[in-house]
Specification:
Oligomer: single chain
Distance between the termini: 28 Å
Shape: globular
Strand order of the largest sheet: 5-4-2-7-6
Strand content: 15-25%
Helix content: 40-55%
Mean pLDDT: 94
Number of strands: 7
Largest sheet: 5 strands, mixed
Amino acid sequence: MASDPILRSVRSLADQKKIERVVRELGRRAKGPGRVYLVGGSSVVLEGGRAATIDVDLKLDPEPEGIFEAIAEIKNELDVNIELASPDQFIPEVPGWRERSAFIGREGEVDFYHYDFYGQALAKLERSHPRDLADVAAWIHTGRVRKDQLMECFLAIEPGLLRFPRIDAPSFRRRVERCANPTT
């Protein structure tokens, strides 16, 4: 979900230990309370779905004081890409995403969560890169994403797709339907 792959490749991959260290350091260095949601490959790696990811993608909501200074330091110290990227930048916000986000832990005054797996799955289905599709399949296999609820979440955002002109809504719908009901 992050930007230019040429620029991203300058830093090393983030495995589970590196992502856990990023979380610890962000919590330790933040100067106030807030929430940090891990997104994309970071969630997949922490869930055991793959060994590493290119970026540690984050959403800050509410933003902890001092977090940007912490990010600037940590990305250099740990040689890791840290990006601000979340599904609601690419598809309409899925209602109830905060409540469905899975708590990871608390470091300092900062609470860390996996961003709602349904929002992540829908964003990955919209993009439909092979790795994204494998991530969604893994979340379905582990029960993080239920097919019926995935379709419900899509139906909730479908009217808002008008505000995302780059998305081909009929193709997106077909991908979600195939994922939610592979026999169709």
